[in-house]
Amino acid sequence: MIRGNVIIAHEICKGCELCIAACPQESLGLSEKINLKGYRYAVLVQDNCTGCINCALVCPDAAITVYREKKHAKGAAADAITA
Amino acid sequence: MEIPPLTNGFELVYKKPRTLTETPMHYCPGCGHGVVHRVLMEVVDEMGIQDKTIGVAPVGCSVFAYDYMNVDMQEAAHGRASAAATGIKRVLPDRFVFSYQGDGDLAAIGTAETIHVVNRGENILMLFINNAVYGMTGGQMAPTTLLGMKTTTSPFGRESGLAGHPLKITNLLAQLPGAYYVTRQAVHTAAAVRKLKKAIQLGFQYQSLKKGTCFIEVVSNCPSGWKMTPTDSNKWLEENMLPMYPLGDLKTPARSMN
Ligand SMILES: Cc1ncc(C[n+]2csc(CCOP(=O)(O)OP(=O)(O)O)c2C)c(N)n1
Ligand code: SF4
Ligand code: SF4
Ligand code: SF4
Ligand SMILES: [Mg+2]
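Predict the joint structure of the above. Result:
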């Protein structure tokens, strides 16, 4: 399985949960803590992210950055960004 | 359990576009406006047209769009974004000019400007964010409000005898010879966001051909005005908005060459 990872800007996040609903892997959930705005923010709750970028595409606050495990074949990352 | 982020041995596959500013957006949690802003700026970044793009912001929740998009922008009077964009494009024809408007702005107070801009075939890209209410002022009924839909000014649901029918202004505009490319998209799923991006790319590319107006409706949500959670609002959109406002192209260059 392709391994991915997301970094969520938790002070930008408004806890709308749209990324959670969009994740095919159910990798995301809401934090127990709240951020400075008072929102529970999105966090990874399972180590099974594939780096599909669905969460980042639906995030209204552009809070999500996505990484994917490096492949030996070049060009895979560029394809993903323009997908 | 929170998994700590790991980036060793990983490569970047998605980050927010550079042309979207660092200013946190004021929109309510889950509001589609933020997604449209981001996708628009992704296209500007990828086409390398930041210094050639001029946007016109509306009156409505997206009135501060110029704070979030790092391109030249002009604020217009309520409903008049496409009229202001007309002037800008005529004076600076080599720029990529877009207008950005809600349904109250574009299809109520600005109906006359909207129709005549498209009828004249102005070479601009018009973005129309249809969330079926006046979001900014508290969720009042808009021309695009669905029949039976409860808003602050139709508390028992919109009734056609009193308030007319939902106005499919995009379908009306597609009839006009000045319209070159007319499409209806959405942002409620990742697949819809990908399609919207392709449409915006086409809208900007066609602008260089000087063949007429490109018009993109985005069926969007207003969780606050609709009094729903963001996830419920997207489900409601899919079940109620999309049957009335089906997604897809209404006019494409190939089909309009008849
Ligand atoms: C001349 C004038 N009339 C009325 C208003 C009040 N007003 C502000 S925004 C708005 C409508 C906003 O709705 P829409 O265009 O759908 O944008 P949204 O907030 O839903 O994105 C109205 C009627 C105004 N600001 N100026
Ligand atoms: S990148 Fe894909 S798999 Fe990973 S958290 Fe986001 S939606 Fe889930
Ligand atoms: S979609 Fe964005 S703002 Fe909403 S919960 Fe996820 S990271 Fe936060
Ligand atoms: S009122 Fe509606 S349209 Fe305005 S920011 Fe809130 S959710 Fe978005
Ligand atoms: Mg509206």
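DSSP finds ten helices and ten strands in chain B.
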